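Fold it.
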Amino acid sequence: MNAIQPPSTIRRIGLLAWLLAAVMAIAVLALPGRAFAHAALVATDPSDGAVLAQSPKRFSITFSEPVSPLVLTLVRPDGSQLPLTFFRLNDQTVEIDNPETLRSGTHVLSWRVVSVDGHPVGGSALFSIGAPSAPPVVGQAVDWTLRAAIWVGKLFLYAGFFLGIGGAFSLAWLAEDRRLGQRFVATALLLGLVGAPLSLGLQGLDGLGAPLARFASPTVWKTALETSFVWTVLIGLIALGLALLSLAGPASLRKLLATLALLGAGAALAASGHASAAEPRWLTRPLVFLHGTAIAFWAGALAPLGLALRRQPSEAQLFLRRFSRAILPVVAVLAASGIVLAIIQVQQPAALIDTSYGRLLLVKLALLLFLFTLAAVNRWTLTKPAEAGDTEVQRRLARSIRIEVVIVLAIFGVAAGWRFTPPPRALAIAATQPVSIHIHTLQAMADLSITPGHAGQTAASMMIMTGDFGPLDAKQVTLVLSKPESGIEAIKRPAFKPGDGTWRVDNLVIPVPGRWNARLDILVSDFELVKIEAPIEIRAE
């Protein structure tokens, strides 16, 4: 009787739980307007490898999706670094002011930005003033210690969400004796409570490209708090706390808290990441929510059920019966949501082999096939005899469940590796983006865009102006693309005016990627032909 809380206390705790759930729901609903796909580089200006006659007044970096700059740096030919602190965001482009006149030689424009899905993106581009020189040394080595820490942090978080919160839900709703497996569940929840803030700090380190030694730096945490991952951590901490509270108290309160915690785990996973940021977000975000809650239900019940079958098989029969009845629709939801999300992320079957993301997915699918097979054998051959009290079958089922737990942990490890791999969907978006250059001379200037910016079937668009930015009513414009070292004859195509103030060349086939020289032959009058040119980088894909 002493364990029973007074009704007023139960009502107050229940009201607090519902308020926390409302906070989680509002947080998730507030996110869709900010969520985008994992950003991929589209173009830089100056382009990678460009040789300029004079120092540019500004730089620009264009991505497949909007980003937030974290660190922008210019490395001079002598290796000294110039922080670039004045920039503007123009849709998908970061426009950066150049604070000084650059000397002759090769420079490196280096960037570290974060996608709105919370994942950092880094890179660099080389360009030269006057003539190329020996490029300055820029550290590009992968910090494997930091990556390992990020991976471990993800595992802790997954353990808390799936084994901890899912385990608390199973103890509240399925178990006859909730003490069996409670220590395991509490340990998993504590791992999640450690992993959530740890992962947030590591997010800041990764965003800045900083070493582990700077983990306590205020700048690191400020950076982390500006990413969408902070919502996953905030909602996750609330859900983990609710699950921990559900391990004690009367049954009705435990069920309420565990249910809210399970919903919170799904909401936390849907708040950031590759899958929830993919378009259409009205579909992907609910699918991530369903996928996460289904995983938590299944994975969370395994350890407590296995421990119950091994230690108190007679009292585990009700737990097993409830689990076996509920698991089929849960697995159906898990599989259906996972298949749709995989199709959205991968898009083309070839990406399963050609990309790191796809290869990790194949490993995960192989583990899932093994897990589903083992679960099917348990469900259709061992469950009924175990429910009937066959002690030998109960021991076999407990051993089989232990194997399932090991496979689930391996799947978590593979899924944590996705943190470092952009999905094929994001790569495909980047591949469809144009490459653009600005050509400026005293006689004329032009903005040239080739869409898509990779080898193959493309189209070119040109805006022609005078050298002082005035209108230029040309009689004829011809695009000439040449790449002498490839042994391919120059591609020469006349442009036409579609009536929108631009000149276009359709059905333009660029046979190979690499640096091409783009020349525009502009017939200003019957007696004046102006030729302007600049290099343009054509991607492979």
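Confidence is low (pLDDT under 50) at residues 1-7, 13-37.
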